[in-house]
Amino acid sequence: MWLPIIGLVLGIALGFLFSVEIPLGYVKYTAIAILAAIDTTLGGLRAQLEDRFDLTIFLTGFVVNASFAALLAGIGDLLGLDIYLGAVIAFSIRIFDNIGFIRRDLIARHMKGGR
Fold this sequence. Notes:
By secondary structure, the protein is mainly alpha-helical. It starts with a helix and ends with a helix. It has helices at about 5-15, 25-50, 55-80, 85-110. It has 4 helices and no strands. About 80% of the residues lie in helices and about 0% in strands.
């Protein structure tokens, strides 16, 4: 359960330690990749709390979601439209939904005396 959190904290720490400049043309793709990573991590944490975590679904979910979001961004770039915003909104809704579930579950477990 704590492995995704450790990975997230490690990634944030490495991000602060090393300066990486992202070319302006890849900013949309980077934003989508970050949202996909956060969404997948929180989804995995939620699945673990629900005792239904599956590593294959976790990994394939990240790859497929990030790839599809990048495809949307690429099509949007070709058409001159900001289609990637659809992926940003979808990821954002899922992230807040997962955070809400995790918060409620952790509070419920704390009130019951933990697990």
